[in-house]
């Protein structure tokens, strides 16, 4: 009896917070309900409306499942348990919980899910007599794009950032916020000496998303500090760090900042030409031009005649990606092929573009 109780508690915990073994075996709600959930990539909002509803229903059956398997394995002990008033109350509660949950989901489903919490949260963005489904279609269209950023905050939740939306996904809910309507602030950081992915420890950051008008906290995103740079790249406004929290970024992130600082000290390149969007991120205008300034005989750089097609941030990532990962101390003095014509250049050759009316 005791062994069964311990086993079932461990099973329920692993089913609600599935480890990699459960995910590989398909013992998750999303795997078991794949035929009815549809595609997350194509129908993001409708997928998660069904997923959260299915998760609530299936998880509500877990307490009743304890009695079900106990009756099958040890029917006599199960009957003895029901003679105890405490276990009897637990039995009726476990029987009532799925009924209440299914009735609640039934009410959500009426009128095409418009009473679902996710649908209600989208209604406040449905201005000018629009329907919440129109907002949902906009989010689904942005989620289909390859430039979205998805950050796993823990085994059961993640954060997704698109061009204009911040989305927090958890087992029972999905929180959505428009980037123009919120501000983000660093709340706190946590230092762990040992983490799952690294024996050298990890830093976790808590970022609060709050309404820009009434300053009401909407939700909090917890993420690894190594994912902080990816999140910042996708945001339209900076994250406020009023507490002065020091963020432990990886080698690449630190190099990006050093690269940018070094380039800002180089002479600018003046141009009256209107710049296209960067080929790397398609978010910012191209603002860099390669102009050879180092000594060719000693550095090996060659002239580049490509028109500006990259922003400084994407060029920094391109430069770092083509360096020797085992010797980051040599990156600043190294060369890299132009992402367009493949002619080698160094940091001295990178110039920021200064827009002028005429030259």
Low-confidence runs:
none
Q: Into how many domains do the coordinates divide?
A: 3
Per DSSP, the total helix count is 14
Strand order of the largest sheet: 1-2-3-4
Q: Find the count of extended strands (DSSP E, 2+ residues).
A: 12
Distance between the termini: 86 Å
**What order do the SSEs take from the amino end to the carboxyl end, as H and E?**
HHHHHHHHHHEEEEEEEHHEEHHEEE
Rg result:
27 Å
Largest sheet: 4 strands, antiparallel
β-strand amount = 15-25%
On the 0 to 100 scale, the average pLDDT is: 84
Helix content: 40-55%
Shape: elongated
Q: Which structural category do the helix and sheet elements fall into?
A: alpha+beta
Structure description:
The protein is of the alpha+beta class and 359 residues long. The chain folds into three domains: 2-119, no CATH class; 145-249, PH-domain like, CATH 2.30.29; 252-355, no CATH class. The chain contains 14 helices and twelve strands. Strands 1-2-3-4 form a four-stranded antiparallel β-sheet, with helices on both faces. Strands 5-6-7 form a three-stranded antiparallel β-sheet, with no helix packed on it. The chain has a three-stranded mixed β-sheet with strand order 8-12-9, with no helix packed on it. A hairpin with a 2-residue loop joins strand 1 and strand 2.
Secondary structure elements and their pairing?
Elements: H1 2-16, H2 20-25, H3 29-32, H4 34-37, H5 44-60, H6 62-73, H7 75-81, H8 85-113, H9 117-123, H10 132-143, E1 149-154, E2 157-161, E3 165-169, E4 174-178, E5 182-192, E6 202-211, E7 217-224, H11 228-234, H12 251-264, E8 269-271, E9 288-290, H13 296-299, H14 312-321, E10 336-337, E11 344-345, E12 350-355
Parallel strand pairs: 8-12
Antiparallel strand pairs: 1-2, 2-3, 3-4, 5-6, 6-7, 9-12, 10-11
């Amino acid at each position: 009896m005791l062994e069964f109780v311990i086993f079932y508690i461990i099973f329920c915990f692993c089913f609600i917070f599935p480890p990699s073994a459960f995910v590989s075996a398909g013992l998750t709600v999303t795997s078991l309900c794949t035929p009815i959930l549809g595609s997350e990539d194509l129908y993001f909002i409708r997928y998660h409306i069904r997923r959260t509803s299915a998760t609530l229903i299936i998880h509500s059956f877990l307490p009743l499942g304890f009695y079900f398997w106990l009756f099958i394995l040890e029917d006599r002990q199960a009957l003895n348990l029901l003679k105890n008033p405490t276990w009897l109350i637990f039995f009726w509660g476990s029987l009532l919980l799925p009924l209440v949950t299914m009735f609640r989901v039934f009410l959500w489903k009426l009128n095409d899910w418009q009473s679902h919490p996710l649908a209600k949260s989208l209604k406040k963005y449905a201005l000018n007599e629009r329907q919440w489904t129109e907002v949902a279609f906009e989010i689904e269209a942005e989620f289909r794009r390859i430039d979205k950023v998805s950050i796993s905050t823990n085994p059961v939740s993640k954060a997704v950032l698109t061009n204009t939306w911040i989305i927090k996904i958890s087992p029972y809910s999905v929180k959505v916020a428009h980037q123009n309507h919120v501000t983000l602030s660093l709340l706190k950081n946590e230092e762990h000496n040992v983490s799952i992915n690294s024996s050298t420890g990890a830093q976790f950051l808590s970022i609060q998303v709050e309404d820009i008008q009434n300053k009401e906290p909407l939700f909090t995103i917890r993420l690894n500090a190594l994912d902080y740079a990816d999140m910042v790249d996708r945001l339209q406004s900076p994250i406020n760090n009023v507490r002065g929290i020091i963020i432990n970024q990886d080698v690449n992130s630190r190099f990006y900042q050093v690269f940018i600082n070094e380039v800002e000290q180089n002479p600018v390149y003046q141009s009256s030409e209107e710049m296209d969007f960067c080929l790397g991120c398609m978010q910012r205008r191209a603002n860099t031009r390669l102009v050879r300034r180092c000594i060719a005989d000693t550095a090996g750089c060659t002239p580049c005649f490509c028109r500006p097609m990259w922003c400084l941030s994407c060029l920094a990532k391109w430069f770092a990606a083509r360096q020797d990962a085992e010797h980051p101390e040599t990156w600043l003095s190294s060369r890299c092929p132009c992402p367009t014509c493949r002619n080698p250049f160094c940091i001295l050759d990178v110039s920021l573009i200064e827009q002028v009316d005429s030259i």
